[in-house]
Structure formats: C-alpha cells, structure tokens
C-alpha cells in the first residue's frame, strides 16, 4: 500500500498535512508561518499550505492543509474534523471511524482500520 495515495484520520495531530499534490490538494502557496511537526521520525519543517476540495460543507470550503511533498502520507486531523462533524466509533460493530457529513448533503466518510492499526479512508477502491 502506498500511503501517499491515502488519507489517514489522525487523533494525534492538530493539523491537516498532505503530500499528494496530484490527487488531494490545490492552490499551494508558501506560508508566512512555518509548522514544525514532531513525530517518531523527528521534526518536519513545513513551509507551504494548500486547500482540500470537497472535505467540508460548501459554506465552509475550502479546507486548509499544510503541504509537503516529502511526507509519507496525508493526515486529516481528528481535532479539526470534530470541530465540524460528529465522528462515531463502535468497535462492537466495526473497527472504523465514521465522519457524519450527511446533514450537510455530503457522503459520510469511513476510515477503516488497516492491519497496521492506521485508520485509512475507505474510498471504495479495490
């Protein structure tokens, strides 16, 4: 699996971060601020921001994200998502998070647990 082609719902980050310019983001610009993101691999210095189309209701678009082409995956911040949507998880039914967007006329998002333990957006692809 190439994580650069996936969205992960991340409960440990406070920022959206994307790396896939072709599929996920547009309008990439240099930011006046810098994000120093710490993780298991050390500190990543991110200097660009972008927009994500179709994530939020039209009245709240566009969703904003930090952008770095050298990242290994695309992260959606659980913190940011619960600021807009209800998110549910019932491990007795399924090991996936559901981001409830239907009240805004959008399709609900399902982040299913991969064997690695990461919750990856189920885009209905084989």
Explained architecture:
The protein has 126 residues and is mostly beta strands. It has a single domain (3-121), classed as Cathepsin D, subunit A, domain 1 (Beta Barrel). Helix content is 4%, strand content 46%. The chain has one helix spanning 78-82; strands spanning 7-10, 17-18, 25-39, 42-52, 63-67, 74-77, 86-89, 96-100, 109-113, 119-121. The strands form 3 sheets. Strands 2-5-4-3 form a 4-stranded mixed sheet, with no helix packed on it. Strand 9 and strand 10 (119-121) form a beta hairpin. The protein starts with 6 loop residues before the first strand and ends in a 5-residue tail after the last strand. The mean pLDDT is 92.
Feature tags:
126 residues; mainly beta; Cathepsin D, subunit A, domain 1; four-stranded mixed beta sheet; four-stranded antiparallel beta sheet; 1 helix
SSE blueprint:
Elements: E1 7-10, E2 17-18, E3 25-39, E4 42-52, E5 63-67, E6 74-77, H1 78-82, E7 86-89, E8 96-100, E9 109-113, E10 119-121
Parallel strand pairs: 1-6, 2-5
Antiparallel strand pairs: 3-4, 4-5, 7-8, 8-9, 9-10
């Amino acid at each position: 699996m190439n994580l650069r082609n996936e969205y992960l719902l991340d409960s440990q980050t406070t920022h959206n971060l994307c790396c896939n310019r072709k599929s996920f983001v547009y309008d990439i610009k240099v930011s006046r601020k810098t994000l120093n993101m710490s993780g298991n691999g050390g500190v990543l210095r991110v200097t660009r921001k972008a927009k994500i189309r179709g994530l939020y209701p039209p009245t709240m678009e566009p969703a904003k994200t930090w952008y770095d082409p050298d990242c290994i995956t695309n992260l959606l911040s659980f913190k940011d998502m619960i600021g807009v949507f209800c998110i549910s998880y019932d491990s007795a039914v399924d090991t996936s998070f559901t981001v409830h967007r239907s009240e805004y006329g959008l399709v609900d998002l399902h982040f299913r647990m991969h064997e690695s333990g990461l919750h990856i957006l189920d885009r209905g692809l084989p």
